[in-house]
Amino acid sequence: MTSPNTSRRTFLKGLGAGALSLVAVSSQLTPVQANTGLTDTTDAIEPYGVLIDLTRCTGCESCVLACKKANNRNQPTVAADRLSSDAYCALERKTITLHDGSLADIAIKRQCMHCLHPACASACTVGALRKQANGPVVYDSAKCIGCRYCQYACPFGVPTYEWNNALGLIHKCDMCATRIAIGESPACVGACPNGALRFGKRSALLAQAHAQIQTNPGRYVDHVYGEFEAGGTSNLYLSAVPFVQLGFPVLDGRPVTEHGESIMQSTPIIALGMAALATSLHLITRRHHELAAASAHASGRHDA
Ligand code: SF4
Ligand code: SF4
Ligand code: SF4
After folding, report:
1. Residue 28, pLDDT above cutoff 80
2. Residue 226 gets which letter from DSSP?
């Protein structure tokens, strides 16, 4: 039986032979198959999610640091302002002009949205990403071949690639699925001192979000981001300013899996070729740097 590591080695060997030859090999692959990533579409379990109230966020960074600690990331005391393989959640800061002309500084916690119909899982040809019935979209590194289809497919720009790992791995928030499995809330939620993050069943969070909008006139825009976008997401946002001003993508209620599947089915060879080419160039450049550094080191020893 072929092990996951063998699949990965085979894929990387293909990279070593050059991106063009890999494109030629990939032409023999069948088109990307539809894959919702759902563990069990008939499962009636109500998914969990997180309600992020941007009007309560002070930008204290506690969530970002707690996330790093919970996921054993590098530089655990440095808060990230963008997602990376070392930061599964990040705090973006924007200065927004309000309707009365005044300026407001807004901190925006970003992480995986845990889509109800995840385009990342749909695009993954080997089933490395899947939506659990209880909410989280989880990743299995043992299955991943590093093709980065998921990165192309995600409408929120969430999956990040670990460039410094020769095996190539994808990184993203998994809603702290192992904590949820033992009845705990995600690390970021537990760390927030301001009640800006609330964990619970998605339906209850939605009801609460709409109740907050109704009972606090003027505090929020009448929009719960994630209720319908991309077919709905497990994570939801409340905001005082229109989400488009915060850089959130404008998406209709159609699952991105429908867009993504048609794109990936029409261009799988190009997408795989581009991913392979980018990876090959990175590995070659890094090897040159390593050889140059080793050469400089050796010449320094001779000069001494
Ligand atoms: S936000 Fe992106 S990475 Fe997260 S579940 Fe949706 S498609 Fe996948
Ligand atoms: S749910 Fe877990 S992995 Fe996701 S942002 Fe929060 S702490 Fe990080
Ligand atoms: S811990 Fe809460 S208040 Fe602090 S940055 Fe995160 S979401 Fe905002």
Report:
1. no
2. T
Q: Ligand 3 within 6 A of 107 CB?
A: yes
- The residues, any chain, with a CB within 8 Å of residue 139's CB and separated by 6 or more, are 128, 129, 170, 171, 172, 174
- The domain defined by 4-10+34-256 folds into Alpha-Beta Plaits (3.30.70)
- Is 87's C-beta closer than 6 angstroms to any atom of ligand 2? no
* Structure-token match 């998994």, residue found: 174
Please list the alpha-helical segments (H only) found in 136-184. Answer: 149-153, 177-181
Query: To test the ligand 1 pocket, which listed residue (52, 84, 109, 115) has its Cβ within 8 A of the most ligand atoms?
Result: 115
Closest atom of ligand 3 relative to the 194 alpha carbon: 3
- What predicted TM-score, i.e. pTM, was given to this entire model? 0.77
Residue nearest to atom 6 of ligand 3 (CA): 63
What is the rounded average pLDDT of the residues 15-40? 34
C-beta separation of 53 from 195 below 8 A: yes
- CA 137 to ligand 1: nearest atom: 5
Other Cβ atoms less than 10 A from the Cβ of 239: the count is 23
